[in-house]
Design a protein that fits this description.
This protein is α/β, with parallel strands linked by helices. Helices cover 38% and strands 16% of the residues.
Length: 339
Amino acid sequence: MKILIAGWFSFEDCNVTAGDVMAKDVACEWLERRNYEYDVALATPFVGGVNWRQVNPSNYSCVVFVCGPFPYINISIEFLQYFNSCRLIGLDLSMFESLNVWNPFDVLLERDSPTCSRPDISIISSQKKVPLVGIILVEPQHEYKNKDKNQIVNAAVDRLIGSREMVAIPIDTKLDPNTTNLRNAAEVESLIARMDLVVTTRLHGTVLSIKNGVPPIVIDGISGGAKVSRQAKTLGWDVLFEADNLCDEKLQIAFDYCLTEEAKLKATFCRNKAIKIVEQVGKEFINALEVSNLSSARVWQHEVIDKSLLNPPKTLPQLVLDTARTIKKTAINSIQNYR
């Protein structure tokens, strides 16, 4: 006879946690070691199991409810009544009531109850580790006009994220405001430093990754390339793509490469090389402060400068605000005319 493994992952909209799923996996592993045949009752969004409301209880000798609290509520009672003919085992559960009042299981190996406490069984679950991937993307760059291809690039990044197992972690390098709850530069860099790799369309996403020895997939979202690709080339980092030559397959190959030790060593090499150049910049900067240095490199040819950025396109919030002001002004004028 089969065993049925159930839990809150067997019900829809029950706030299932990763720990619940891990505990389920532990129970299944224990059964497999002893060659027990079993089914797992799963509900959306999980797939591959059975619907406990549609199975025949007589097909199961034991029903095991795994992990989480097991309170006296309607869905608990419904489940117990449906499998009343089976031997019921409670595994890794939190029981709130006294067991003299509420213990619906033939065998209860609780996680905690008023009389007993055990470690949660997820502590011995075996989970493969997936890479932590920082996603550092730039906002639309209107200053590049029709060369801005970041919308296309962002779609390619989304496809890359979907093509590999990873923890994709959005990282905002802006501080005013920051959309990822990072409050200062130290917090931004500390998060980047803990990534296994970074996917970025930002210049400082590139630089801070290289600085911390984290291999980045660098994508310049400007057609023909701009400051991002120029900086990557200056650093000597060649895992670089431009908006005009994006290819999903090549991005996936780059992803796999950036997880290698070779890529980490290359990032460290690029960092050390850049440090030497920047130290020289520091010397030139201090030299420029000397009073005796009166030379100037100023150039300002007003008549040939692109002046379109003097009146940049309005953002959506600005357009909404302007529209609201116009409506308000019209309403006030209408009231005044009515009076």
